[in-house]
Amino acid sequence: MLKQKDKEKEQVEKIKALRHELEEKLEEQLVMVDETLQVEVRRLDENLELEPSQAKKIIEALLFAATKPLSVQEIRKAVKPLTAREVETRIAELKEEYLQNGRSFEIIEIAGGFEMATRKEYAPWILKIELQKKAKQVTQSALESLAILAYKQPVTRAEIEDLRGVDVSGVMATLVERGLIKIVGRKEVPGRPFLYGTTDQFLEHFGLNRIEDLPSISDIQSLVEKSVRKEDLLGVQKNIPISDEEEKDPRHSERSEESKNTDPSPAESMPAQDDAPCEEGEPAK
């Protein structure tokens, strides 16, 4: 038992020594960028207690420099003296400060983490800058495939093709390349095809905290039915009752007469049953 403990202690000491050596080498590499700019590297004491104001500034700097949302656990890895509750408290204080000072940005919770973002009311000006970048837009085909995948995940490529009726291999490759979807496993069927699901980058791109925040199919259906009549959507024209005002309107009577004159009668519209094609120049029987 003692030998086992000694071995574990020796292993811990070796890891500490290796870590110290790596830190020294890193310092040597980051001493000079050019003749005018020097980089000072200071070794941090991970056990040093931080004042609330200092901790808040450190968290603010981390969120400002991050290129993706940071979770509480990721922040704690950089600021070890803080507990998860303290990190959440400091973030809440930053949110309140930004709100009280009327700043143009805020801290939002997205994709399971926290991120700095500009407020929605400044979107028109930001949009002008973004349009100048001429960023590549996801095609309609990719959006349709992505929507199917988001709601039916995990799903195979063949299942998406069955729903869309077209080959989506190129679209799927593009979505994987852009980091919006990923392979999450294999389906237990002959051939064991890949199963695909959305990524955290998908949540971040569409402003979602969880995949469950996607609008339900019933909500989308209700929205479409309210904005577009089912008859118009299906291209079907139904007989709509005539209101009293329309009945009194002479223009309505004229339209009714025109429809009567233009609509073929049942006899005219019914194809002849016994008519056979005749030879050219031969009178029809």
Tell me about this structure:
With about 280 residues, the protein is mainly alpha-helical. Among the domains are: about 50-120, Orthogonal Bundle (Arc Repressor Mutant, subunit A), CATH 1.10.10; about 140-215, Winged helix-like DNA-binding domain superfamily/Winged helix DNA-binding domain (Arc Repressor Mutant, subunit A, Orthogonal Bundle). It has helices spanning about 1-30, 50-65, 70-80, 85-100, 125-130, 140-150, 155-165, 170-175, 200-205, 215-225, 230-235, 245-250, 250-260, 265-270, and strands spanning about 105-110, 115-120, 180-185, 195-200. The strands form two sheets. A two-stranded antiparallel ribbon has the order 1-2. It has a two-stranded antiparallel sheet with strand order 3-4. β3 and β4 form a beta hairpin. α6 (about 140-150) crosses α8. The radius of gyration is 34 Å and the shape is extended.
